[in-house]
Each structure stands twice: as structure tokens, then as C-alpha cells.
Amino acid sequence: MDTSERLVESLERLGVTRIFGYPGGRVIELFDDLPESSIDLVRPRDEREASVMAEMHGRLTGEPGVLAGQGPWIGSLGLIGQMEARLASSPMVAITEASERGDYSTIAPYQQSRGDYGGLDLPNILDSVTKEHWFPRTPNETIRSLQLAFKHAVAGRPGPTAIILDGDAITEEFPEDSIPPVWDEETQTRMWNAAPTPHDVAAATEALESAERPVIVAGNGVHAANAYEELQDAAEAYEAAVVTSYLGKSTFPETHRLAGGVIGSFGHEGANQIVSEADVLLVVGCRMNPMDTNWQAPDFIRPDEQTIIHADIDPRNAGWVYPADVGLIGDAAESLRELAASGGNDNEWAEDRASDARESFHAPECESDATPILPQRAVKEIERVVDEDTIVTADSGNNRFWLLNYLQTPAVGTYYGSGGVGGMGWATPAAVSAALETDKHVIGVAGDGGFSMTMNSVETAVEYGVAPTFVVLNDTSLGMVRQMQHGPDDISGVEFHDTDFVRVAEAFGAIGVRVETPDELGDALTDAASNDRPTVVDVRIDREQDMAETLQSSFYASVGGLHE
């Protein structure tokens, strides 16, 4: 068989059921063989949206989402999903190509991306974003590279990998007897989970058992390891309050008696206070980025006064930001399972303190009937239709911080946000990907700026027969930046034309609804959940509600506010 046929056969053996991509260049050879396979192609309107869909697939399933397309565009438009995957630890494999033109590849190149003189350097571009990349030059290398790309995408801290197809490496006949041998996909990609040492588990257990105010900070690593039950078991064993990072939101039900909310610069004040009051902190799968740590406000986390246990899949990350007293190196599920089985605690602090902290999920504005709709009330209307069988995807900008603070998730795996690299335009294609992968109702929430960037994904949802709800929190501006102004027109480019998203939705074949009152929003969201077509809900929100002023953490304010 041709190498392209063997490549598709390998993808089937690796369990791939869906590829997100756009045909072009030498990837056409791959796409030419897909119709005879069991693999479905999801072809959005551009590589950017395909990359986000692949990243979300990996985030949801723990299996690499596959992105495929022509080299120059996977290395440009398609980088947004790969960057998010790198910093949000989502397994992903990009299959791309160098647009090589045989004997003409070194002569005044057109789209040539091998990195030779005069051309683009796609390997260098991908090297700056992916965990690993391969540039196979023979059929044998092509298949081995694909296998290794899948293995490395999930090995250790998950992330994006890539293979770059080139000339004969994809078009030649695949040899029957390969030298060196090409092993079968299951054997070559087999993985094993790492676990912490008994010595480190014992040290962590001793610290947690003696704690009077134990707190767990759960990060995205809990999502990546699917360690939800293990987290709850450990929290209940040690009666520890649980807070999360932004990317860790919905790793723990925020309605649980030990749940304290989300930490960070624009997180819950109650959650931040819990962390500052802890005597023992167990940090699980969280890189503790500046937003998480309130830009290292000195009164927030204090290594000289608090015992810090850091559990991470990568030994380099334990103690990366704050010195750790104990490192638990291994898969988050393994570390939490060992802790839950090895000890326990009984204190009177955590449950009461977590209950107080959860008050941060509510504010008087959440009940306001004002028009334009207050964003706090808009989030509470969304919350009313969110149950354990709902997934919410959140974009970047003000909308995600309103959601972070006022959407109290009822179950694990119900909320995912653009918080790795934090690109605008993520939520809409991510919602489509989640709807394709699950039977759950999916709600994608974005501002009008972020929605406009990738609203073509609404058409993709229509084409592929899924029906997410897309909520546009519309203030006809780039709200977060606009609110950074010191005076009117202080920053250029923050005002948007008032786009008619209802007509846009209808043009795509979806349902469009414009709402201007809280009751209208509640009705629209209820109706959307039962629609058999995607619904775009254009929510006219009060643009004067200042997110940063309203939600800024007291610890963040103590270090002078905005540092981005």
C-alpha cells in the first residue's frame, strides 16, 4: 500500500475516530484515503478553528486530538490551538506537510516550508510551540514518527506534537519489511503512569495529618489525569478545603461542602483568603502562574510559614514557583490515591471555612432585573440551565472572569476555559468540539469580540448536526481593554460596530435570538437546550460594570493591580 494509506491505517489502529482539518498541500494524500476509513473528517472554515477543536477534543477525552492541514497554515492560523494545548496540557497531534514541490523546492519557493534557502522554516515554527516534532524523509520514518507523536502527546505532562510530511515520505509505497522495524501501534505507544515514592507519600501524609487548616489547590493536572474521584477522596480523608486554579475549575464540584472556589487575581476573595490562612497547602497539577498566585503577593502564599506539598507529573514543576517541602512526582490520580489511602485528618476548620468562602459565588447584582442586563445576572441565568450533563466553554476577556466568579459548577468536567495561552475566539469552536464528542448540552460563552473571531464555527455545528448554545455577552466593545482606559478614547481600537448576530446565526442555518432583559435570557437559554439546531443568544449587557474594579482580589490590589 502507499504510505498515505498506511498512515490512515495507523490512525485507525491508534483509535482515532475524528480528524479536524482543512485539505491542502501534501495532506491531500492523507485526506484522499479518509473516505475509505472509519475516521470522520470535521472540516471547519479555517485552520484556526480546527486547531481549537482538536485541542478541546484532547482536553475532554485525554486522547490526542488530531489536527491536519497544509504546512504554512498549520504553522500560522493553526497555532492558536497548539499554543493553548502546550500551556493547558492538552494532548494533540498535528499532521502537516512542507508543501514541497519535488525538484523545484529550492528554486524561488512558493509555500515551501522545509526551512531551506528562500522558504519558510516550518520545523522551527513548530519547534517553538510543540513538545516534540518529527520531519520524516522515508515511508518507514513517517509511520514511526506518527506513533511517537501519539506517545509523546500523552507522555508526562500532555501537550501538542507534530509530524511534517514531505515528498516521497508520504507518496511512496510502504515497504513490507521495514528496516528498522515498525512495531504495531499498540506496542509502540503503550504508556505507564508514574507514581510518587513511598517516602514522599509518608512525608506528605504526616504533614496533612498534623494540619489544623489543610487546603488543596487543584489545577488542570486533575482534569488531565481524570483524577476527580481521587481528589474528592483525598479531600474528604483529610477534611481539606479545596480551591482550584482557573484551569482547574470544575475539577471539584463547587457545590461540595469542602469547595472554596477559584483562586487568583480576579478569582474569589473567599478562596484566596482560605489559601492565605492554610498551614498546609497541597498543590495538585497546578503550575501556579502569576494570575493564580496574585502575582506572588507576599501575604498570599508564604513558604516560610506554610508547609507546601506539590504534586506534579513533571519533577521540574514541583517547587517551580514556591519552594516545596514535599514533592509528589507522578500522575495526579496516583498521588491522590496514595494520599487518600495512607492517612486522614479530622478538623473543624475546613468545612465551615469553605462554606463561608462559597459566599463569593453570589452578589446582589446576580439578582438584578436591570436592563441592559448586568453580566453577573447573565451568568446566574446561565447557571440555572447548567447541570451535571452540561459543558460550558469560556472565552478570554471579561466574560471568563464573570463566569469564573458567579457560575457555581455542580459537577466535575462541566467547565473549560481558555486559560493556557488565553486566546480570544476559543470558546466557540471548543463548544462545537465538545458537542461532537459528547451527548451533553454545551454552552459556549464569549464576548462579542471573541465570538466574532470564530463565529464561522456556528456554521460548522450546523453542517455536522450538533446544537450547542452560543451565548454572546455583548457590550459592542473589547470590554476588558476598554475598561483599562484612564479616560474616553484613551486606547485605540476598543469599540466595535454593532453586529447583528441574530442575522449572522440565521445566515449560517442556526437560530438567532437577541435578549435585553434577564427573563428573556432565561427563556432563551431554556429553549436553546431543546433546539435541534445551534442557537446564538445575543445578550445585551451593561458595559459599565467594571470587571477589574468589581472582581480584583485584595491580594492582587496589594501588589499594585494590573501587571499583564
TrEMBL record:
Domain Thiamine pyrophosphate enzyme TPP-binding span(s) in chain numbering = 395-539
Tagged with keyword Membrane: no
What keywords are assigned to this protein?
Plasmid, Thiamine pyrophosphate
Xref: InterPro entries = DHS-like_NAD/FAD-binding_dom (IPR029035), THDP-binding (IPR029061), Thiamin_PyroP_enz_cen_dom (IPR012000), Thiamin_PyroP_enz_TPP-bd_dom (IPR012001), TPP_enz (IPR045229), TPP_enzyme_TPP-bd (IPR011766)
Ranges for the region named Disordered are 343-365
| Compositionally biased tracts (Basic and acidic residues) | 350-365
Family indicated by similarity: Belongs to the TPP enzyme family.
Thiamine pyrophosphate enzyme central domain location, by residue? 201-339
Lineage of the native species? Archaea, Methanobacteriati, Methanobacteriota, Stenosarchaea group, Halobacteria
- Report the superkingdom from the record: Archaea
Source organism of the structure: Haloferax larsenii
Sequence ranges assigned to domain Thiamine pyrophosphate enzyme N-terminal TPP-binding in this UniProt record = 1-106
This protein is called what? Answer: Thiamine pyrophosphate-binding protein
